[in-house]
């Protein structure tokens, strides 16, 4: 199926992505505005209000479509993470009539934001999970437990057939790749996001099963991160995610054996890449200086001029990159991480937790902490 020809921020008629697209970030936070039309009457629904970091852009984008924030009638929350809910505080302040839909388990935590919407509808109290708006439009509630929170709920707009799925179906993006619709090139980032944030394949598989039986069938998936999915690629992602090892699954020792040969290959390539950049001698100086109780030594046999992965490539690869790119060799870190990402994708290996995209911030936080230390320490 070909992808619809649409404006950058329009998902379909009556639904806009109003979140900030930030080409410098590898995690986009998607907020959506869905507008139901009944004659001349409009009902505006804000899906996952988003991160406080993005609020100025989210507000501006919302105001392009609604006259005033007071015109937004309702909001919904998938779960309680700050990238999903923080802007609720501002929306509720600006609009005393705002009403919301949220699961009880999510609200128990979100209430600590001290945002006070006029009224809340709890998803657990909605009969047959079917909400009817005053203008007759219907929204089907689709609980997706543990994807990634116990009380996560996806919202299915039966008119446009868009499923607002929260973090499920979200993805990391390559820097600069912030187009609206996802395609095959974006799969690695989608897989990596799920491997990091979803607790176990069983939860994802359960959720995908619930989504596949929705009637009428879903045409578009609009997640809270990454790309809108539609057409054949949407079905491909559903099928792949239902069988992707994520979270806890990746810790299973049987998997380690299954993937060891692949990780060994990637491990050798990382050593080779690093040797091209900083020299083989430097690499083995660094590795041989590691203390006897260093975690990497549990997984890697380190000799004078060679090193071989013995087990647990999922953990050893990030450790190796960390050690090789310390101090004066920091410049090779992102290159090595990109290599691992690409090769693990090529070889269908679970993608190790490389912390791609947060290094700069970690460095910034570290510097702040240093500047707080008393003089002389
Ligand atoms: Fe989340
Ligand atoms: Fe999220």
Describe the structure.
The protein is an alpha/beta fold and 377 residues long. The protein has 2 domains: 240 residues, Metallo-beta-lactamase, Chain A (4-Layer Sandwich); 110 residues, no CATH class. Helices cover 38% and strands 17% of the residues. The chain is built from 13 helices and 15 strands. The strands form 3 sheets. A 7-stranded mixed sheet has the order 1-2-3-4-5-6-7. Strands 8-9-10-11-12-13 form a 6-stranded mixed sheet. Strands 14-15 form a two-stranded antiparallel sheet. Strand 1 and strand 2 form a beta hairpin. The chain is elongated, with a radius of gyration of 23 Å. The relative contact order is 0.09. The N terminus and C terminus are likely disordered. The site of one fe (ii) ion has 4 residues, from loops.
